[in-house]
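Quick start: read one record
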Amino acid sequence: MNILDEIRNRAVAPTVAPREDVLAPQQQGSPTPDMPSTADSSVSELTLLEEQLRNLPEIAPRVPVRLEMAIKQELDELCNLEKITVETLLEAFYVICQDKDTVMKQVLKEAKKRLKSRKEAGNIRSSITRLANLAKKRK
C-alpha cells in the first residue's frame, strides 16, 4: 500500500447513527386546552423578549478608540477587576460628568489639551515620514 492509499483510508470519516431531533414536533395527539402548545409559548416568549428589548437603550456600533498605552493598560486592568467593559465605563463617565458642570468643564479642558498634543505628535510623525521619503529619493 502506498502513502496516497494510507491518506485516503485515514480520510474516511466513521459513520454515526442519525439522532432523533429533539425539536421536531411529536405526533402524540393534540395538546390539552389548559396547556399552551410549544409554538404558542415560543411566540409569546419571543414577543415578551422583544418588548423588553424595546425598553432598553439602543446600543450604537462599536467605536474604535485610540488611547495612550499607559491609560489603556490601566483602564483594562480596572475593567477586568470590576468586570465591566471600557465602553460601559466611558458611558458611565459621561453620564456622571454630564450632571456635574464643573467636572465636565475640567474634562473638556483636559481633552482639548490632549487633542493639541496628539495633533502635534501627528505633525511630527508626518514630517519624519516626509523627510525619510525625501532622503530615499536622493539616494
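The radius of gyration is 30 Å.
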